[in-house]
Amino acid sequence: MDYTVVKQNRKTATIVISDNLEVLVKVPRYVTKRQIEAIVTKHEDWILQTLENKKQLIEAKDWYYTKRIMYLGKYWPVELIIQPSARQKVDFTQKGFIIVSDGSESESRQLMEQFYRKQAKEQLTKLAYRYAKLVGVQFQKITIRNQKTRWGSCSSKGNLSFNLKILCAPQEMMEYVVLHEVMHLKHFNHSKEFWKDIEVLMPDYKKRMNYFKQFGQNFMI
Ligand SMILES: [Zn+2]
User: Disulfide check for 169: which of 8, 139, 173, 183 has CB 3.0–4.6 Å away?
Assistant: First the structure.
């Protein structure tokens, strides 16, 4: 079994399975290699079971396995069509997504990410212009990223950056994220004035903010 030993200032040993399915054996500094092997052997059943459970949880949320993906607040079916010689593309219709690819997992994932990236750029730029006008500020450029947890950010130079996973959320939730970041061009903090100005333009902002806290971890692309 593959595992990584992490020697730490600690009194007891512990085994952790990370989110990317790595087995980490955390032990006190004085523990020998042989002792570590014994710990792993003793807990082998638990490690294998936990790895399997985690893998299933990941696959249960992963559109590539479930064949459904969240887009603009709704789950849509994903159909994969394998056509190595055809032009590789993603089509989105009222029935869902159709991906024409060479059949490889990486190609399909790449195509889907490109679709989200392009949509994110278009839709979030439109919203950013709308809110910048309302707030009375100007931004420089917009970058789309695929991040784990952050939805958006605003630099002191006036650049906005958004997570492409925002496209999983309904339109009104995307609006909140954009307004939040645009408002930072006026207030570079989360002061009372910042929230007051948000509330003026979006009286139900708290509801929208909570949506991300509640459902954000389901957004996967
Ligand atoms: Zn903020």
Answer: 173
